[in-house]
Amino acid sequence: DLPVPEVEYHNIAVKPSQVQKDMVASLGERAEKIRGGNVDSSVDNMLKVTNDGRKLALDQRMMNPMLPDEEGSKVNACMENILRIYKEGDAQKLTQLVFCDLATPKGKVAQSGRIAAKSTDNPELHALEAAIDAETGPEKPPFTIYDDIREKLVARGIPREQIAFIHEANTEVRKKELFAKVRSGQVRVLMGSTFKMGAGMNVQDRLVALHDLDCPWRPGDLEQRSGRIIRQGNRNKEVGIYRYVTKGTFDSYMYQTVEHKQRFIGQVFGGSGAASRS
Fold first, then answer.
1. How far is residue 144's CA from residue 59's CA, in Å, rounded to a whole number?
2. Euclidean distance between CA atoms 13 and 141, whole angstroms
3. Phi, psi of 106 (to 5 degrees)
4. What is the DSSP annotation of the chain?
5. 248, 17 Cβ separation under 8 angstroms
6. What is the dihedral of CA 230, 170, 150, 239, to 10 degrees?
7. With contact defined as beta carbons under 8 Å apart, do 220 and 20 qualify?
8. Which of 214, 191, 199, 42 is nearest to 124 (CA)?
9. For residue 235, how many C-alpha atoms fall within 13 Å in the half-sphere facing its CB?
10. DSSP β-ladder status, 238-246 and 189-192
11. pLDDT tens digits for 85-117?
């Protein structure tokens, strides 16, 4: 009967850049051609359009690393919130989680980490991650959100050793060591994907904030994320969950889709849609 912290949800909606607006229009044109049967599915299809739409909603540099870093992007909004909360919780060594399923770290370290975790992760999520990898390739891309946020936080004064990626813990031993550092406050910001941090991770002791940079595919994935911080054993009585949305992009579509799925599940199992509202 241990208590769990009270949670306050913060929906952070940012305006799209002109580049994002133009690219969203281009995605719409691609979708129309696909629906009209004017494109071979091997060349373009709705899965590719959806994947590009998610990337674009996250950051325009996901589409082209040469595009400018928009000051008002949701990635920068997230970075500013992480920095503010870090400073506010410095005396207590309070910690934060950042979830992002796109643009995860790649290369030998991340790949070996995936192999080590295959026995515990959800097979459906592995299939999704494999599909993303098949498109982006196994090598480290020229731009990743993870590196972008970490470098900005380090430049603003957070020690590099206090920011970690779950993908860098490529064995069970290293995972346990990393989790212990988060619980003790040695690591103050931990970034990862739903695939790696959505279940079976107990680092709640000092967690005060959780950031959802993108929207996962399933309602249960959002619940798994939230379950990392709304958890018995958290010393904080109040915590915050921050969800970031770029207006006029696939973000709205993704969250609406997840909401509709949750409402349907609530109706099936509870006889009404009340359980879907949060």
1. 10
2. 27
3. -125, -175
4. -----EEEEEEEEEPPPHHHHHHHHHHHHHHHHHHTT-S-TTT--HHHHHHHHHHHHH-GGGT-TTS---TTSHHHHHHHHHHHHHHHTTTTT-EEEEE--SS---SHHHHHHHHHHTTTS-HHHHHHHHHHHHHH-SSPPS--HHHHHHHHHHHTT--GGGEEEGGG--SHHHHHHHHHHHHHTSS-EEEE-HHHHSSS---GGGEEEEEE-S--SSHHHHHHHHTTTSSTT---SEEEEEEEEETTSHHHHHHHHHHHHHHHHHHHHHSSSGGG--
5. no
6. 10
7. no
8. 199
9. 12
10. unpaired
11. 999 999 999 999 999 998 888 754 444 334 333
The answer on pLDDT for 126 being more than 70 is no
What single letter denotes the amino acid at residue 200? Answer: G
Residue found by looking up tokens 């010393």 in the block: 235
- Give the highest mean pLDDT range of 14-23, 34-43, 197-206: 14-23
DSSP string, 100-157: --SS---SHHHHHHHHHHTTTS-HHHHHHHHHHHHHH-SSPPS--HHHHHHHHHHHTT
Could you tell me which of 103, 121, 123 has the C-alpha nearest to residue 113?
121
pTM over 0.90? The answer is no
Establish how many alpha carbons lie within 13 A of residue 59's alpha carbon, considering only the half-sphere containing its beta carbon: 28
Instruction: Report CA torsion sign: 85, 277, 200, 51.
Output: negative
Judged against a pLDDT cut of 70, whether residue 119 lies above it is answered with no
Contacts of 131 (CB under 8 A, 6+ apart): none
Residue 192 identity: G
Residue type, 83: L
Is 108 buried (19+), middle (13-18) or exposed (0-12) by CB count in 10 A? exposed
Query: How far apart are the C-alpha atoms of 98 and 185, rounded to whole Å?
Result: 15
